[in-house]
Amino acid sequence: MPIDAAKATSAEPRTTELAWDHKDVQLYHLGIGAGAGTPEKPHPATDPDELRYTLESALHVLPSFATVAGGGMALAGGLSAPGIDVDLAAVLHGGQTVTVHRAIPVRGHATQTSTVPAVYDKGHTKANAAVIVLRSEVGDDDGPLWTCDTQIFVRGEGGFGGDRGPSARLELPGRAPDLTTERLIREDQALLYRLSGDWNPLHADPEFAKLAGFDRPILHGLCSYGVTLKAVVDTALGGDVSRVRSYTTRFAGVVFPGETLRVRVWRDAPEPGRIQVSVTAADRDDAPVLADTVIEHS
Predict the structure, then answer these.
(1) Residues 24, 121, 149, 198: which is the catalytic one?
(2) Domain count, the chain
(3) Is 121 noted as a catalytic residue in this protein?
């Protein structure tokens, strides 16, 4: 069997050295739409608020950069773990959490420690899938920097008799959102985003996308994840990336380059310091994109 859950979860932690500098941060920010027009800022390329993401002398690091620091080694490490041998065409990103322990520096060298805490068996559903849970803990000489929890959804690999795992869903607040904003995904967005390290051809090669069951290449889930965090930071947190403490989501649907994301935000849901978010594809009757999405902040 391509996935040996017992072997994967009992394997020794794997360590990887990560390094990045301002060019990596700037490329990531551009890959999630920094400098592009928004309803709030139609011409923002040289707006001081945007230059915090794009100009090295003013740079602040969005916490979701943790998912690509060092070339996106967290996800790659999960797919190369002992006991795991899967077809990339069957792989989708199921969910993501980033917990920030302190501000991510513009230039860094750190050690990543990766484990597989769980492999869940969704074989009793129509999906017939396995879900690989990968945890990556990253720190440098000054201590912990961030923790990433990644859920990798592998179609056709369920039915091995394992724990089905959690299935609870987060209900949206029963009131109108406090704010709604939209973000256009450019036609070349996936091609730019993949330069940060996720080279899965699903996001660039039309023929590979067809093998995976899609009419054309889809946007990286983590690109939607970054676009959304930037939108919330810019509109609900005063543009202050340092206020973000953790950010979690479930990838509920695909996005095609050229579409528009509609981001709905509920502040203090259900308590201060907690923002709940819903993200949909505005061009497809608000088809779900990100669900169970929460940002905890100071």
Answers:
(1) 198
(2) 1
(3) no
